[in-house]
Structure formats: structure tokens, C-alpha cells
Amino acid sequence: MREKVRNIFYFFGIFAIVVMLCTFDMDYQEVWANLQKAGYWFPAVILLWLFIYLLNAWSWYVIISDGKSTKVPFGKVYKLTISGFALNYATPVGLMGGEPYRIMELTPYVGGSKATSSVILYVMMHIFSHFCFWLASVVLYIMVEPVNIGMAIMLAVIGGCCLIAIYFFFKGYKNGMAMRTLQLMGHVPFIKKWARRFIVEKKDSLERVDAQIAELHSQRKSTFYLSLGLEFVARIVGCLEVYFILNILTSDVSFISCILIMAFTSLFANLFFFSPMQLGAREGGFALATSGLAISSAFGVYTGLITRVRELIWIIIGVLLMKLGNDSKKSGNGKT
């Protein structure tokens, strides 16, 4: 049964890749010419994400193991991290395929409730680090760039929203989030009947998941902050991608500027979370961010193109990894 479900995820990933290739909004000869222009910087960008995914996997592994011995090999967590992100990048709204896939593959090792809670905790940590990164970038912008009235208002709004989000995340960590999420889904059209039925049928499991979520913040603070720190560092390291790409075009760019470009671009792109691979939003974000820092907007469009090709390559790698390294002995149902 597990292999059948895995194949569903796999063929969905293949279908998403085909759709992306067919709808790519640029002539492939032009894409190839731009990649040739990138030279050795493009392989450097691809290899950079080996390290970024390593940090992401480490952050999740810390949550799973909590400093104790675990049955889950780190290589397995690394593979699931790459494949999970590949499915998320390929799906509209995000988090539609990667998280169920990770839970399914992790369940035979740690059980259903532990697998679910660790995946939910990691997703929360991953999103939480976004808000911490955006808030830190607001402070950084104030320190290094001139701020007029209009920019001050925008930064105040962004900073205020980040602080509110951080507050609610801490509330979620304190009290658990699984049950509340399902209760909110119980008011959403089309899925409310399923959500309410799921709460009734899985109430005990959901309560165990919430207890494990609350335990991470209340009793395992070192694990909590190590996981968050790794995710935050992954955000900073990810800014090297922009630095590498812009150095193809100009030497007049600082790493601090790349942090600000990446912060604004990721914020802008996440406002269009409903688009698979955030098509169009990412390129627009790069163009606006670079022009806002007195860098040619054409550089931003080029950066968006190279980033898009890198994402597509890693989506293909992630989908292919779904069929590699699967333990047939672990293909049965896991404990709950």
C-alpha cells in the first residue's frame, strides 16, 4: 500500500515537471544562452543548495532525535527533505504534497504521531524562520540604507506584521497547533466535513501531536533554538545564490544588499503562495528589489531566471530521489 501511495506522489511530481517545462515563459535557446553566460557560477549555485538542504535536514533531524539515538538515518531525512521541498515547489498553495509524503515515509521509523508532530514542527520552524529573517532584514535595511517617509511606513508595516506572526507562532508552540488547525479547517467550504470527521476519528492522535509540539518549546528549549538557528542560517546562506548570480553581471554588489534583495523577493513571492513555483512573482520580486537598491532591474530579471532553472533542476532531483533508497522492510504500516 505504501509503495502505491509513493507512486502517486512520484507521478504527480513527474506531471508537475512536464507542465512547468511546457509553460516555461522563455525560449529555450535564450535560456541556454543565459546559462552559458553564467559559466561556472551556475554549477556553484546548484551545489550551494546541497549545503542549504543539508541545513534544512539537520534542523528537522534535531526535532526528530532531540539529542537521543533515533532509528531514522540522517541520509533518509536528507533525502526526504529534498523530495518534500520538490513536491511543495511543484504544487499550488505549497505544502500540498511534501508534508503528507514526509509523514508517510517517516511513520515506519518513529510511528504516526511522532512523524506527524515532527513534520508539523519542522514546517512551523521553517515558516517561523521566514518571519525572523524578514524582521532582521527590516532592521538591517534601517542600518545601511536611507529611509524616507514612504519606506519608513512600509518597513513599519512589515515589521509589525512579522512581530504579530512571531507572537502567534510562540502561542502555537506553547499550546500545540494540530487540533486548532483542524478546527479552523472545519469552517472552510469543501473540506469542513472531512476536517470535522477527522477530529472525531483522530482526536487522541491529534492531542498526542499537540502535546509533542508543546513539549518542544516548554521542555526542550535547546532543541527548539538549535532547529530555529539552523533554519535562520539556511536563509542567510541562501542569499549567496543572489550574490553568485549578480557577480556574473557586476562586481558592484555587496552581500548585505543580497540579503535585502532576498528578503524582499521572498516576502513578495510568498504573497503569491498560490502559484506553483511562484511563477512570475519571484521574477517580479527580484526586479523590484534590485531597482529599489539602485541596481538595474534587468539584473533582477536575470537573477530570477537563473533561480527558476535551479529550482527546476532540484525539483527533478527531488522527484527522482523518491524512487531511490527506499527500504522494502519499512514499506509496511508504522506504529502509531
Please provide a written account of the structure:
There is one protein chain. The protein is mostly helical. It has 14 helices and no strands. The two termini are 17 Å apart. The model is unreliable at 274-278 and 332-336 (pLDDT under 50).
Structure, briefly:
This protein has 336 residues and is an all-alpha fold.
Radius of gyration: 21 Å
Number of helices: 14
Fraction of residues in β-strands: under 5%
Please identify the structural class as seen in this structure.
mainly alpha
**Average pLDDT number:** 78
Multimeric organization: single chain
Helix content: over 70%
Order of helix and strand elements from N to C terminus: HHHHHHHHHHHHHH
Outline type: globular
How would a crystallographer describe the biggest sheet?
Answer: none
Number of distinct beta strands? 0
Poorly predicted runs are 274-278, 332-336
Q: In angstroms, what separates the terminal alpha carbons?
A: 17 Å
Describe how the helices and strands are arranged:
Layout: H1 2-22, H2 28-38, H3 41-65, H4 74-90, H5 98-110, H6 112-144, H7 149-175, H8 178-185, H9 192-201, H10 203-219, H11 221-249, H12 255-270, H13 281-292, H14 297-321
Helix pairs in contact: 1-14, 3-4, 3-6, 3-11, 3-14, 4-5, 4-14, 5-6, 6-7, 6-10, 6-11, 6-12, 7-10, 8-9, 11-12, 11-14, 12-13, 13-14
Keywords:
mainly alpha; 14 helices
